[in-house]
Amino acid sequence: MADNHNKKKTAAAGKILPAKNSKPTAKLAESNGDLRSYTIRDYRLEKPHFTTRQVRVGDDVHYEVESGDFATPAPPIRDSKYLSREQCIEIYRWMLLNRRMETALENLYKQGKVVGGVYFGLGQEGCSCASAYALGKDDWMGPMIRNQGALLVRGFRPADIMMQYMAKSGSPTGGRDTTSHFGDLKKRNVVAPISMLGDLIPVLTGVALGARLQGKNVAVMTWIGDGGQSTGVTYEGLNFAAVQNLGLVLVVENNLWAYSTPANMQFRIEDLAERAIGYGIPGVIVDGTDACQVYDACYEACERAHRGEGPTLIEAKMMRMKGHAIHDAAEYVPKPMFEYWKRRDPITRMEDYLITKKKWLTTEENEALIASVEQQLEAERELAVNSPMPTPESAAGGVYCEDGCHDIKPKYAMPESATIGGRESGSGPKRSESAVHLK
Question: Are 415 and 435 in contact (CB under 8 A)?
Answer without folding.
Answer: yes
